[in-house]
Amino acid sequence: MPIGPLAGGLQILQPWGGIFDVGKGIQHGGNETIALPDMLSGAEVIVDEWGIPHIYGDTLEDTFMALGYMHARDRLFQMVMQTYLASGRICEVIGGADYAINSDKYQRAIGLVKAAEETYQWYVDNADTNEDVDYSLRATLAHVAGINAFIDTMTSDNTPIEFKILGFTPSHWTPIDSFTWAKYMTWSLSGGVYDLRREFVRNQLGNDSLYADIFPEFYPNTIPIIPEQYNLSLIDYADAPGGYPAMLVPPPSILSENEPIAQISESKLNELLNIVSSNINLLGDSVFVGSNSWAVNGSKTATGQAMLANDPHLSLQAPSLWYEVHLVVLDDDEALNVQGGSLPGTPGILIGHTEHISWGMTNVGADVLDIFVEELNPTDPTQYRYNGDWVDFEVREEVIHVKGRADIHFNVSWSLHGPCIDSVMSTYTSDTETSYPNIAMNWTGLSITHEVLTLGILNRAQDIQDYYDAMYWWDSPPHNFIYADDAGNIALTVAGRFPIRQGYSGNFPVTATNDSVGMISNIPYAFNPRSVNPSQCFLQSANQKSIDPSTYGFTILGAQSPDYRGERIHTYLDGKTGITVNDMMQLQADVLDLTAEKMLPYVLAAWTSSGEVNTTIQTLVDELTGWNYEMEIDIAAPTIWTYLLEEIRYVLFDEIRDADLPATLAQIPIVEWVLSAPIDYYIDDHSTVAIESMDEILVQAMHRTANNLYALGDDPSEWLYGHYHTIFIDHLAGMTYIGGGAHRGSGYTVNVGGGWTVQHGPSRRMVVSYTETPEYYTVYPGGQSQVMFSQHWDDLFELWYAYDPILGHYGYTLEYNYATAIAFTNANDGTMIEYIILFIPRG
Amino acid sequence: MRKLNVIFPDLGLFPAFVITLVLSIVLQLSGAWITMFLVGVLSSMFVRRHRTAFGVGFFGVFIGWLFIFVYLILTAQALPIADFFIGLLGLGGLGWLVIAISSIIGGLLGGFGGLLGRSIVDLVDELLPNEAGKETKDNNR
Question: How many CB pairs lie under 8 A apart between chains A and B?
Fold first, then answer.
């Protein structure tokens, strides 16, 4: 989101009262006392050497109010941008550029704010009857009060420089803003109109057999996340997650030939996909969103106690999505001691640990969003057919306020299935037709969801039963929650509400004119894929398929990551005992690329058998021969392999290219399948009369690779991976960046780094070791402060990026985890505490 | 009523400059840059010629702001901040230019404040009856 530097006017250049004040705002000497109007009793905040606040509040409200204040003080610009973007209000901040208007229209069309309002109202309505809801709501409201306390007392010194440059003053934060941001996260992790993309690809390919081959339900050789299913009792948990209705016996899956087909014109489909693909996505391209997590029990560790590791792969942005914090409530009636990564703008710890348990998350990638093409009334297109009647669309008027320009009005139509996302086009005329909004989005995330309630329970969890109870409420977005505790348990729950579909597959847009076709129920929480203390003594997930479909009675639809990271983690843990913290960290830093290990031998063998004499190609072969498949920065082989892998895919899938689609539609496991099976149909180049062998095709790929490489330079010393594979963490508004250096790994290594310029990857690394005094190691690529001139702008990045070849891993902080402020200050050796803030009640 | 030029004596160039410099630093601490215009107006009271008023206002505020910038460079990373800002315009590494431009803007505010102030003083004094002339007439009677 680029922002012009002079939007705030020339006055921002004055020495006092302009942009230069931020240099004073980051100076904290000794202790500070801040009086806040809604503080009940008080809170002491110890800010440690990394700028991480440890909040010791007398009451729940005091702790969360201090959290809100600290979130706002350190990350207000990010919070505002995120929430305004999610709410379709970004034009209020950056003005009326086309991309901003399109973004606002799109965000309003998908209806996150409406869903957030309904979710918030559910908390208000249920707080009196459910003490966990009451707890979460009180925490939310206190957190909001803390944010607003900062906004109300904001001075020129601590106003984010971005606001000064923009000439923007943020309005008060509301609970709806907090829920909207949670919805946006949910959207980024489980939304997306993939049904439309699949429809486009299927139409374009015009070959169902090819489609089925490149998009299989289960990649060959996948090691699923759940090794042994562990069901909970239906007596304890009768419903689906979030209290939604459940069905014990799903209806039979529909045969593909019986699937109802929805009619969307090609022009409308293309236009809609263009709008979607050009939309701003703060969490980055979903292709790169993934994560690693694993846990091992005491039989495999050196300490005899459980260990856990997690690194969620999200967009790497500056400031980071994460904000480390330690929350303590001293009130015995509502005691809390939780530490980990929070998301600025939401109340609680998303990934972290309590005194007894720890947890991490990876994305399931489940498809919980379906597109319904409503049948419009030919005589009145403001109505659609349902259950035999013409039903009026509910129309929600949206008004976009644009900085410096007139408001923009447009309407979003809602059917029973959800918002019509083609409302962004409103009434329009294409070359051949006049059309009205009728493409409705039925997404579980638009229902009332309970992420905040889950965190309210999980943040206080003491044992595995509390973990089960917390997971019951996690309905959206579907995530794999890895778990370990100080009692030696390890577990993994594929948490989330998974719809049971009837009358359609859920893969493609469908027309449903009555109740018999749609998401009719959900998988019972008791039967969600889950593993607890499995016999293999470890658990792992890396976004691969959750569970083997042949062993599970329900269908969980959805994308699956290539299994290379998961396989590498599985192999490593399976063959190892006496695991140490160092081993866990080394595995997080692992850059062994299984794609190379599995497929490069085919290429080298093809070259040998070809008998071709070509010094150009031989240079490549020499570099690749003897390579250990590790994507290190100081050698050329990873560069060659990266090009070569793409070229292999290119030459294999002429069938896809012939349909004017990129060969990259075929994921790498499909490439591996074609080579290893081998599948002669795909190996042959159908554009030639001759029938090519695999060796011929692979040599072709080598020639194409050589062309790319020699364009970089004539000598292999010019192909070093680190010259091209770099990390670049862009500021949220494009004003600066962190990084720029060479980066180890690839899109298929455990230390993931897809693409040449890495902008996604391990957004937070965590290793937990349950010794007598548990050790919690964390780091993320950024810093606690939003101010780019602060030492805490990128100090954690420096640690995250610093690979130690002797130790074989990156740097981490060892968390300070003292239960009281006195214990912390007593333990301080003079370097641990930077300063202390005392929040006291005002008046 | 006494004329403004009588109330505010002509202090000469250097004292007027010092007053302007001190005022520019003190009022800038309010964070309201428009006060530099006021500084220029006030400084114009102590000189008599328009070009002197402009010069005193300009250089008083210019030097005053430079003093503040030096302090901020030493204590609050003003140079990296300036570098960052001008980097947004694609001119990274020229942070000193931002500080120079900022000081010139301040100086222009002070200078034009001085011009305006001097003009207002002259206008007001011209509209006021001449006290000296009135006393002479009274004495003749």
Answer: 73
Q: Which residues of B touch A11 (CB under 8 A)?
A: 33
Report pLDDT for A643.
Answer: 98
CB distance A359 to A481 below 8 Å: yes
Q: How many domains does chain B have?
A: 1
Domain boundaries, chain A: 594-723
CA A73 to mean position of chain CA atoms? 25
Residue A393 DSSP code: P
How distant is the Cα of A293 from the closest Cα of chain B, in angstroms? 38
Of the CA atoms within 13 Å of residue A792, those in its CB half-sphere come to: 20
Of the candidates A414, A476, A400, the residue with the CA atom closest to the CA atom of residue A110? A414
Q: What is the per-residue DSSP string for B52-76?
A: HHHHHHHHHHHHHHHHHHHHHHHHS
Please check whether residue B19 lies inside any domain of the structure: yes
Query: What's the whole-number mean pLDDT along residues B73-84?
Result: 94
Provide the token pair at B6: 């009588």
Give the structural domain span for B103.
4-133
A19 and B81: CB-CB below 8 Å? yes
Please give, rounded to a whole number of angstroms, the shortest distance from the CA of B41 to a CA of chain A: 19
Query: How far apart, in Å, are the Cα atoms of B47 and each of B16, B17, B56, B123?
Result: 7, 10, 9, 15
Nearest-angstrom CA–CA distance, A250 and A661 = 36
Calculate the alpha carbon distances from A56 to A143, A150, A777 in Å.
14, 18, 21
Q: Tell whether the model's pLDDT for residue A554 goes beyond 80.
A: yes
- Residue A680: CA count within 13 A, CB half-sphere: 4
CA A175 vs. chain centroid, Å, equals 23
3-state class percentages of chain B: helix first, strand second, coil last, to nearest 5: 75, 0, 25
State the pLDDT at residue B91: 86
| Alpha-carbon span A399 to A538, nearest angstrom | 52
Give the amino acid at B30. Answer: S
Q: How many residues does chain A have?
A: 843
B 81-110 residues with CB < 8 A to A = 81-82, 84-85, 87-89, 98, 101-102, 105-106
Q: Classify residue B140: in a domain, yes or no.
A: no
pLDDT tier at A287, thresholds 50, 70, 90: low
d(CA A25, CA A156): 8
Cis peptide bond prior to A678, omega within 30° of 0: yes
Contact assessment for residue A508 and residue A529, using Cβ atoms and an 8 Å cutoff:
no
Q: What percent of chain A has pLDDT over 90?
A: 86
Interface subset of A 735-754, CB within 8 angstroms of B: 735-736
- Residue B141 clears pLDDT 80, i.e. is over it: no
CA distance B101 to chain A (A): 9
Task: Indicate the pTM of the whole model.
Answer: 0.94
Q: Indicate the pairing of strand A765-769 with strand A760-762.
A: unpaired
Query: How many residues are present in chain B?
Result: 141
| Residue A196 confidence (pLDDT) above 60 | yes
Closest residue in chain B to residue A5, using alpha carbons only:
B88
d(CA B12, CA A819): 68
Q: Which residues contact A337 (CB under 8 A, 6 or more apart)?
A: A327, A328, A329, A354, A355, A819
Does residue A11 belong to the interface with chain B, where contact is any CB pair within 8 Å? yes
> What percentage of residues in chain B have a pLDDT greater than 90?
72
pLDDT 10s digits, B93-116: 899 999 999 999 999 999 999 999
Strand, coil or helix: A392? strand
Give the DSSP per-residue string, A136-199.
Answer: HHHHHHHHHHHHHHHHHH--TTTS-HHHHHHT-------HHHHHHHHHHHHHHHH---HHHHHH
Dihedral sign of CA atoms A338, A339, A341, A347 in order: positive
Q: Say how many C-beta atoms besides its own lie within 10 A of residue A296's C-beta.
A: 25
- In CATH terms, the superfamily for domain A594-723 is Aminohydrolase, alpha-helical knob region (1.10.1400.10)
Q: Tokens in use for B91?
A: 């001119």
